[in-house]
Amino acid sequence: MSQDLLPKPLPYHLMEQIRREIIAGRHAAGAPLREQALQIEYGCSRAPIREALRLLERRGLVTHEPRHGFRVREVSATEVRQIYEVRALLEKQVVLGLLGRVTPELIAELHATNATMRAHRAAGDVERYIEANIAFHAVLRAHAPNEPLGRALDVVYEMAEPIRHALLHRSLRTSQAAEQHDDIISLLEADRVVEAAEEMYRHVFTGMPVALGTVAHPEGSNG
């Protein structure tokens, strides 16, 4: 049997379930994650629930205070800015890693994932749009392998995931990410990699104003 088909240990399975619910907004920022309620919901003992919450804490989605328990991490406006700043620098570095590595295969893969993004945007499918967006950036990483850089980006992506979902639930129809990706692809196609890296840096920052709005004015507010 392939290792990918083996069942995950229960704490990891629970972590993925709770993670999806946090990202989808079922557990709001700052909301308590009560172990007893999760036990009842998932029909298991407290130990794997607690381990799942500890795993989420390490991934930056959950916080823990002694005697107060676990809560969904609240992200401040300052932290939103910091996440965007770090991600912009890292994504720029990914593109710089393509110097001397731009191939027709890379360009074709980027066009294909970007077309998928457009299709999901037209269908109003936030989840699949995000998946395609992540796939676009994954193609760049795959053509310029850099394990430390990739690990750093994985952490930033995880912290940004609830923000990204909140943002796109507000603004999917008006998202211009695919068009901005077109500009990056065109620069890479012309082998203007340094300029493409600068364009990537700007591209990451374009979502920050709306992301800050999701912190200042949570869903459902009229502000």
UniProtKB/TrEMBL annotation:
HTH gntR-type domain segment(s): 8-75
SUPFAM superfamilies to which the protein is assigned, alphabetical: GntR ligand-binding domain-like, Winged helix' DNA-binding domain
Alphabetic keyword roster: DNA-binding, Transcription, Transcription regulation
Keyword field contains Transcription: yes
Alphabetical list of Pfam families matching this protein: FCD, GntR
UniProt-recorded Gene Ontology molecular function terms: DNA binding; DNA-binding transcription factor activity
PANTHER family recorded: GLUCONATE OPERON TRANSCRIPTIONAL REPRESSOR (PTHR43537:SF24), TRANSCRIPTIONAL REGULATOR, GNTR FAMILY (PTHR43537)
Protein name, entry field: GntR family transcriptional regulator
Gene source species: Neoroseomonas soli
Lineage, highest ranks first: Bacteria, Pseudomonadati, Pseudomonadota, Alphaproteobacteria, Acetobacterales
